[in-house]
Design goal:
Length: about 325
C-alpha cells in the first residue's frame, strides 16, 4: 500500500510538472485545456437557488421562515433507503420593518426537489423531514402545521447564499458577471474535496408515521475561514503613441507558492481576482474594460512571480 501511494504521488508530481511547463511555454494551450474541463466544474460551482419558503410555527417566540433551496453541490441520495443529504445554514435572527423573525436556509439536491414537485406526497414528506431536522438542529419545538409562502425566498438571495456557503461574501464592488477561470487543480480535486470537508448533513429517509428516532447523522467540518494575505503586486498600463491603453500587465509576487496549480485566477471585463487557498487573496479593479478571453498568465517558478497580461477590450467606433 505504501509503495502504491508513493507511485501515485510520483505520477501526480510528473503530471503537475508537465502542466506547469505547459502553463509557462504555451499559455493558450493551457487555457484551452482549462476551458475543456470547465463545463462540469461550473455546473458543480453553481450557487444555491431558492425553491420554496416555509413559515413554521414555533411553540414560542418569533416566527420562523425556512428557505428550502436547490443546490447541485448537495449530492443526491445513493438509493431510496439511504440517508438524504442536506446542507443547512445557521439560524439567523432578523429585525426588519418592525418585525422580528428567524430564518434558516436548507438545501437539497435539485433531483430531490423535482421528485417532490412531481409527487405532492413526497413533497409533504420532505417538508416534514425538514421540520424535524430544524427542530433537532436548532433545539426548537415546532408545530407540524406550516404555511408555504407565495414567495420562494425570505430575505436576499446573496445573504441566503452566504449563509449556506459558510464563508464571507465578495466585496460589493466585485462584478456580478465575473467570468471565473479555474485552475486545473480545482477542476480535478477542489470541488470534490470541498464537498467532503464541508460535507452535508444526512437525513434518514423515514416515513412520517414512524417513531421519532434520531433522524440526523451529522458530519461536522472543522474548517474555519482564515484571513488571507494580500500579495505584493505591480500594475502597468501599456499605451501606444496616442496614449491609448493597449493592455494591462500585472506582476504579483507569491513567495509561498511553488506551482501554478495552487492559484485560482478569475478575470472579468473589469476586475481580476487571484486566490491561493490558505495563503493569498487579491482583488483589483481594472482601469479599463478588458478582453478576458485573450488574457494570458505565466507563473515563474524560480522567482515565484505570476505575470498576467490582459488586452484592453476593443470599442466599436
Amino acid at each position: 500500500a505504501e509503495s502504491e501511494a508513493m507511485a501515485g504521488a510520483a505520477l501526480a508530481g510528473r503530471l503537475w510538472a508537465l502542466l506547469d511547463e505547459m502553463a509557462e511555454n504555451d499559455p493558450r494551450a493551457y487555457r484551452r485545456l482549462l476551458r475543456q474541463q470547465s463545463a462540469e466544474a461550473e455546473r458543480l460551482r453553481a450557487p444555491p437557488e431558492p425553491h420554496l419558503c416555509l413559515r413554521a410555527r414555533p411553540g414560542a417566540g418569533r416566527p420562523l421562515f425556512i428557505n428550502v433551496c436547490s443546490w447541485k453541490r448537495v449530492p443526491a441520495p445513493r438509493a431510496p433507503a439511504e440517508p438524504l443529504p442536506v446542507r443547512a445554514g445557521p439560524l439567523a435572527a432578523v429585525s426588519g420593518e418592525g418585525d422580528l423573525y428567524s430564518i434558516i436556509d436548507i438545501a437539497y439536491n435539485p433531483d430531490v426537489l423535482q421528485r417532490g414537485e412531481e409527487n405532492p406526497e413526497k413533497m409533504e414528506h420532505l417538508i416534514h423531514l425538514t421540520l424535524r431536522f430544524v427542530e433537532e438542529r436548532c433545539k426548537l419545538t415546532l408545530s407540524y402545521s406550516y404555511t408555504i409562502e407565495p414567495f420562494k425566498l425570505k430575505g436576499s438571495l446573496e445573504t441566503m447564499q452566504q449563509r449556506l456557503k459558510g464563508r464571507q461574501m465578495p466585496t460589493p464592488h466585485f462584478s456580478q458577471n465575473t467570468k471565473k477561470e479555474l485552475t486545473l487543480d480545482q477542476l480535478l480535486h477542489a470541488l470534490e474535496a470541498e464537498d467532503c470537508s464541508n460535507a452535508p448533513v444526512l437525513l434518514k429517509e423515514e416515513s412520517v408515521t414512524q417513531s421519532k428516532a434520531h433522524l440526523i447523522e451529522e458530519i461536522t467540518s472543522t474548517e474555519m475561514p482564515e484571513k488571507l494575505s494580500t500579495p505584493v503586486y505591480e500594475m502597468i498600463t501599456v499605451k501606444d503613441a496616442n496614449k491609448k491603453t493597449l493592455k494591462i500587465e500585472l506582476k504579483i509576487e507569491l513567495p509561498k507558492v511553488s506551482s501554478v496549480s495552487e492559484c485560482d485566477l478569475r478575470i472579468s471585463k473589469d476586475d481580476i481576482i487571484i486566490e491561493v487557498p490558505e495563503k493569498y487573496k487579491l482583488q483589483l479593479d481594472l482601469p479599463e474594460l478588458v478582453d478576458e478571453e485573450t488574457a494570458t498568465a505565466v507563473f515563474n517558478k524560480g522567482k515565484q512571480v505570476l505575470f498576467i497580461t490582459v488586452p484592453v477590450a476593443k470599442t466599436d467606433l
